[in-house]
Design brief:
Strands 3, 4, 5, 6, 7, 8, 11, 12 and 13 form a nine-stranded mixed sheet that branches. α4 (about 75-85) packs across α6, α9 (about 350-380) crosses α16 and α12 (about 450-465) packs across α16. The model has no long low-confidence stretch (mean pLDDT about 95). The protein has helices spanning about 5-15, 35-50, 55-60, 75-85, 105-120, 120-140, 140-155, 290-330, 350-380, 385-420, 435-440, 450-465, 470-485, 490-510, 515-520, 525-545, 550-570, 570-580; strands spanning about 65, 70, 155-160, 180, 185-190, 195, 205-215, 225-230, 235, 240-245, 245-255, 265-270, 280-285. It is built from 18 helices and 13 strands. β1 (about 65) and β2 (about 70) form a beta hairpin. By secondary structure, the chain is an alpha+beta fold.
Length: about 600
């Protein structure tokens, strides 16, 4: 049995729960079948196991190096990404007209879980390239798609997203990178970026940076931001990479984890290179002028779900490795046992089983959340009913900040428990779990901090939407609770419905408060409470699917459901009470007191 990912759980979620077979009756996915999906998942397991997992530790220990001119990665990264591309994964989701397989997003995410779990650092280059290609496919010109997207799907060109700047991390309204229009329709860009993953390396033929910048006279704030395509090498007359563009590195950032994906500080237009004989990074507008942020959100939303999947996968593999260790490691005896009797495996101790069951509830709950969101993407892409598509879009909007943040918080907690299960060995580099923890610790920061996701959920997706999207979500939650009546999970359904009602009540109180500052002061607590409610709902969904089964897999699902409802969902009550009370301790705190 693999300790990277559980094939049985992926197939259960896809086929037994999400009923992926139904997608194959829709025109967009009619070329696929269950056999195709199972073959794809086996291929993902093979490529991830053979090409990604073997250098995961090496890429962590020998992190990227910058000699002032070039970034050097461990040599195993490039052939692994070549194997990924050759197996068709870069083009798997893409429309057939671009040479893709047009696979459902839910199937693709299930396959990608293998790569995230095997080696999240190397997978980062593929994830960024996929999101870059998708953005250009949606918003780019035909020429941009032909020149840049096709080589990306073939694995010859890589992609990045260049948003943040040294003085304006998450606050994109204050970016200062400028883009000066040229007579030939191109732009010259000048500025500094920061925290750019995959921002430079020697792999492939080229790197496409998608850069946020301001044009002269642009409106202040986010409404004045535009998006530009800036390649590392400018294309020659034949389209092949030619002259070096004026993009260099000030340096690279050295992270506590996720080290395999180089993180850079690029400088545009400092004159290190002079395309056409003068400084300035050459770029081309993507989408409409001053609409850069909405366009970039095509990539950012995809990346947010990808971050959640990566966090989930690290939680799953940490759980599987600590479970295997607990089954093999002999340690102590049960209470009351004769000291002369043999030691028992760690898994025989109730407190160790608690830690393992907690990990299972977090990791498998997060995987269900991510695949459910991916299934909404499939519905948006393939349903003919406009109203159903609109509902799926709204529901996905509400769930996206949850799908990014909940796994980033609770699968990190799972990794923490995996360390504890291994005891002293867990804190050594002899075992993978300490690296998984360090790798996962970055995910609460990636693609918007935990707090920003809370503000997005409460401020934009709930209050800003008039509660419509939240209502759609809670309708589904209540429908599941209703289906549980008359089953052994009826009490869970009652508990779930009661928490849903309380969330509605508290949301109304928050929406009625005077200022946005007051509404959003404890948005993080709202995010966490909503996330626990959502994952409890998805555990009840899984319980109902296995209700008539009596094998170890089904019993494990029921045990995880019992754990989550008994020990995790009750956390929501105090959070909602705090929100309802309007506690002002942080609002009234003078920074001088800290």
């Amino acid at each position: 049995m693999s300790q990277i990912m559980s094939r049985a759980d992926l197939e259960f979620l896809l086929f037994d729960w999400l009923r992926t077979d139904e997608l194959f009756a829709r025109p967009r996915y009619a070329e696929h079948s269950r056999d195709v999906v199972e073959d794809l998942l086996r291929l993902a397991e093979q490529v991830a196991t053979d090409w990604f997992a073997p250098h995961n530790r090496k890429a962590d220990l020998e992190e990227p190096r910058f000699d002032g001119e070039k970034v050097e990665l461990v040599p195993e990264v490039e052939p692994a990404l070549r194997a990924f591309a050759d197996a068709g994964f870069l083009a798997a989701q893409v429309d057939e007209e671009l040479g893709g397989l047009q696979l459902p997003s839910s199937v693709f995410n299930a396959a990608m879980a293998w790569f995230h779990a095997a080696n999240i650092g190397t997978t980062g280059y593929a994830l960024l390239t996929l999101a870059n290609a998708h953005l250009l496919t949606v918003h780019g010109t035909d020429e941009q798609v032909e020149r840049w997207v096709r080589p990306m799907l073939e694995g010859r060109v890589f992609g990045t997203m260049a948003l943040s700047e040294p003085h304006a991390g998450s606050n994109l309204a204050d970016i200062t990178t400028r883009a000066e229009p040229q007579e030939d329709g191109s732009y010259r860009l000048f500025g500094r970026k920061m925290w750019i993953s995959g921002g430079d390396h020697e792999m492939g033929d080229n790197i496409v940076h998608l850069v946020l910048a301001r044009t002269p006279g642009a409106p202040a704030g986010t409404k004045g931001i535009s998006l530009f395509l800036v390649p590392k090498h400018l294309p020659g007359e034949d389209g092949a990479p030619a002259e070096r563009n004026d993009v260099v590195l000030a340096g690279i950032n050295h992270k506590m984890g996720f080290r395999g994906t180089v993180n850079t500080a690029p400088v545009l237009g400092d004159g290190a290179f002079t395309p056409g004989g003068r400084p300035g990074a050459v770029g081309w507008l993507v989408g409409e002028l001053h609409r850069g942020l909405p366009v970039m959100f095509t990539m950012m939303n995809e990346a947010r779900i990808g971050v959640g999947l990566g966090a989930t996968a690290l939680g799953v593999t940490g759980y599987l490795k600590s479970l295997a260790y607990a089954r093999e490691r002999l340690q102590g005896r049960l209470p009351g046992a004769d000291p002369a009797t043999p030691q028992v495996p760690l898994v025989e101790h109730a407190d160790v089983r608690r830690m393992l069951l907690a990990q299972k509830s977090y990791a498998e709950g997060a995987l269900a959340l991510n695949l459910y969101c991916a299934r909404l993407v499939d519905d948006i892409a393939s349903l003919d009913d406009a109203a159903a598509v609109a509902d799926a879009e709204r529901l996905l909007g509400v769930l996206t900040p949850v799908a990014k943040s909940w796994p980033s918080q609770w699968c990190l907690a799972a990794n923490d428990l995996a360390l504890q299960v291994l005891g002293g060995a867990g804190y050594t580099r002899d075992f993978d779990v300490e690296q998984h923890y360090r790798d996962n610790r970055l995910n609460p920061i990636h693609e918007g901090t935990h707090g920003i996701q809370g503000q997005d959920l409460l401020g934009r997706k709930v209050v800003g939407d008039g509660g419509v999207g939240l209502g759609l979500l809670l309708d589904r939650v209540r429908a599941t609770a209703e289906r549980s009546r008359g089953t052994g999970a009826a009490a869970y359904g009652d508990q779930l419905a009661a928490v849903a009602d309380r969330l509605v009540e508290v949301t109304g109180l928050l929406a009625g408060r005077g200022s946005a500052t007051e509404v959003l002061a404890d948005a993080t607590a709202y995010l966490e409470a909503t996330g626990h409610l959502v994952v409890a709902w998805l555990w009840l969904e899984q319980w109902l699917v296995v209700a008539d089964r009596d094998d170890d897999f089904a019993r494990g699902k029921r045990a995880a459901t019992a754990y989550f409802f008994g020990r995790e969902l009750p956390r929501v009550g105090p959070q909602l009470d705090l929100l309802a009370a309007g506690d002002r301790v942080t609002l009234d705190l003078d920074p001088a007191w800290l």
